[in-house]
Amino acid sequence: MLPIYRIELPTPYMVGPVNAYLIASPPYTLVDPGPETDQAKEMLRQALEEHGVPLEKVERVLLTHFHSDHSGLARWVHVNSGARVYAHPYDLAKLVPGYDFLGQRLPLIKGSGIPPSLLAEILQDKDPLPAPWVPEEAAAGLADGDEIHFAGGTLRVLHLPGHATGHLCFYDPGGRTLLAGDFLLPHITPNPLLEPDPGHPARRAPSLRQYLQSLERVESLEVERVLPGHGQEMSGCRQFVVLGREHHRARLQAVLEALEGNGRLTAFELTLKLFPNLKGFEVLLGLSEVMAHLDYLEESGKVGVLEDGGVAKYFLAAAGPEGS
Ligand SMILES: [Zn+2]
Ligand SMILES: [Zn+2]
Q1: Model confidence, pTM
Q2: Which of 59, 185, 190, 321 could pair with 163 in a Cys bridge, judged by C-beta atoms 3.0 to 4.6 Å apart?
């Protein structure tokens, strides 16, 4: 069983603090070093010191995914310690200088019916954290099934897309422990986020289908404790898998109900029905959530979509033979 310590660090985001984890078995490894703020740097440096592994002694950084609250300090840790930074290649490709987060995503909501004024609001809503990036010479890729060795044990790499196309979890079979990043969280269900499909960049990744498939994979693992990217350690895993599945089932149902009796609706109109009070960047998150569910429903034949003047309009697919 690997010695793993949770280090909670503040973020400026609504989600609240994020968890970095120190694996205090050589080679000393940090999982998700946290957001790039002066406060997080200071707190991380101090916590590492307290656990007997000064920042300069960190040898590896593992990233669950590229989001700035998790990966922001990777470069700083590398610069101070020489540690290599490991992540899935899909997410390493987003951890480069000048990566255009919105530029990559806005084409995917073309046709959603979002009014230009709201689009402008999204563009003006500045991220409070700098865009994270990792120097090319420090970056190393990890693939599903890879093993990461320590003096005291091994972590197995699981590629579990859905929240991010390159999302990784790290499983310690010796301690029956899952370092889950944003794949499983104690109080909220991670948003299946809008991203280009790495295989077909002009298309949206089928994030909800991937997330539900990822849940299935994790369900078959022996996991006694989940160490999430936000919040406290979770004991057991299956009940969270079940909750995640139920959450999305209910939301799929809510989308179908919103379409019922309403003819044809755009993804934006559906977003307003489900989440009426969003502002700025949150609109993109709401739209992302709705579009992920619409894509899933369309793929499973429950909704149809028609192109109408450059806008995609969704409707309930023909009722069954009983007309129900
Ligand atoms: Zn995330
Ligand atoms: Zn997160």
Answers
A1: 0.95
A2: 190
